[in-house]
């Protein structure tokens, strides 16, 4: 096992952010799931309307109306926050040391 060279900053795996491509794929997947739920709400609303259950149509219709707004906000929200619950980088916080040969007591 090697030691850190010079002043290289060493990151633990728990501090590393997920790659941008993985983050975009995650947001696209979440958006598509929400749009599938919206489509299901719309289909249920149509079925309820055809079966003359007009007062029940409101529940899935409201979902079909508001889910796209929420999905777009989540999709365009940017990267997820950093994970700060894991282990953090070890930083030694000691005062600077003097050379013992310079001071004579």
Automatic annotation (TrEMBL):
<dbReference type="Pfam" id="PF11298">
    <property type="entry name" value="DUF3099"/>
</dbReference>
<keyword id="KW-1133">Transmembrane helix</keyword>
<keyword id="KW-0472">Membrane</keyword>
<feature type="transmembrane region" description="Helical">
    <location>
        <begin position="31"/>
        <end position="49"/>
    </location>
</feature>
<keyword id="KW-0812">Transmembrane</keyword>
<dbReference type="InterPro" id="IPR021449">
    <property type="entry name" value="DUF3099"/>
</dbReference>
<protein>
    <submittedName>
        <fullName>DUF3099 domain-containing protein</fullName>
    </submittedName>
</protein>
<feature type="transmembrane region" description="Helical">
    <location>
        <begin position="55"/>
        <end position="75"/>
    </location>
</feature>
